[in-house]
Amino acid sequence: MKRRDVQLELNQAHTTAEVFIKSYNQTIPTGFPVASVAVLKKFQEANPSLFSNKDKWSIEKHRKKLMDWLPSHLNES
Question: What domain range includes position 31?
Fold first, then answer.
């Protein structure tokens, strides 16, 4: 029988931006730029193909992409 992977299920689950921000900011490396609602909105605007529903975020789908994108877009207004 296959074991249930609770952490994988949590990472794949769709969640709100607020829950995503909390999880993201708790798990990023020390000194790495943190996420905010404003940052997530800019990320969504820059990457519309990643969002079939802009109110839904997933750790598995969006975390790494946001980590790659964020440092080069910190100073944008």
Answer: 12-72
